[in-house]
Amino acid sequence: MRAVVVTAFGGPEVVEVVETDVPEPGDRQVRIKVAAAALNPVDAGVRAGVFGGAGKRIGLGWDVAGTVDATGAATDWAVGDEVVALQHGTAKSLGTHADYVVVDADAVAKAPASVDSVHAATLPLNALTAAQALDLLDVRPGQSLLVTGAAGAVGGYAIQLAAHRGISVTGLAREADEELVRSLGAAHFTAGAVAPGSVDAVLDAAVLGAGALEWVRDGGAYAGVIPGAEPASVRGVRVGAVEVAADGARLTELVGLVDAGVLTARVAETLPLAEAAKAHARLGEGGVRGRVVLVP
């Protein structure tokens, strides 16, 4: 089978498509025949060596939508099930950017019925990150939340999830993205002017750091999306960063919200697996609204 890997760190030019053995599922695992797999900023980080692993072959890809092709023991999934899953890890030998991938059975959810596999592939990493970041913030209905990077994939899901819970959301993004951000459910929009201490919480999907922390009221909450990169606490603000975890049960809930029309899966562009390096170059250009998705 084909798989997208890096064996050296650098720009899109280091991305390779190699031939390798089809992986076999172990106990409590399933093998998925990949129909679509989203490309995320974390893949660019792995490619660039941000997470280490020099001298190893590292497989790229965290998101997958496809069909169960084989199962190990002790799983309720069956061959032919259409599913989505998150395959967590920055130093794995094979990722989801491949013809087949093996994942833990408890990371899997039934695929949405209302969207195709390309759109479904944008859900696991970004929606789980948004949901788990909101858990970390513990924002309640009636409170105010500012989401930076509001037009991005994590930011967009966060706005929709928070608005669905009755939270008043302000989206921070480029002026050109105001219509999009408001369409996702943001009650307010800003391209940069935010009063200090004016919101109960910030979900900092754009990784603005200390600047975004200043917008949180005394005793409020801040959540980043890169563990270890969050700013130090000030004024009693509770500070943390979400480290996304695979969670099939939670993913099932998010799939239900897609089918209910609460969450919008956005695709910027679709490219064949063989053009993975081109997909990385496109991601690096910036301004992507939705995800670039690879299709085997």
Describe this structure in words.
The chain is an alpha/beta fold. The chain folds into two domains: 2-123 and 265-295, Alpha-Beta Complex (Quinone Oxidoreductase, Chain A, domain 1); 126-241, NAD(P)-binding Rossmann-like Domain (Rossmann fold). Helices cover 24% and strands 29% of the residues. The chain has eight helices and 16 strands. The chain has helices at 41-48, 117-120, 124-137, 153-164, 178-183, 210-213, 248-259, 276-285, and strands at residues 2-6, 16-19, 29-39, 58-59, 63-71, 82-86, 100-104, 108-110, 144-148, 168-172, 188-190, 199-204, 216-224, 238-241, 267-272, 291-295. Strand 12 (199-204), helix 6 and strand 13 (216-224) form a beta-alpha-beta unit. The protein starts with a strand and ends with a strand.
* CATH fold assignment of the largest domain: Quinone Oxidoreductase, Chain A, domain 1
Query: Any idea what the CATH architecture of the largest domain is?
Result: Alpha-Beta Complex
Give the CATH class of the largest domain.
Alpha Beta
The overall average pLDDT, rounded, is 97
Largest sheet: 7 strands, mixed
Helix content: 10-25%
Portion in strands: 25-35%
Helix and strand composition category:
alpha/beta
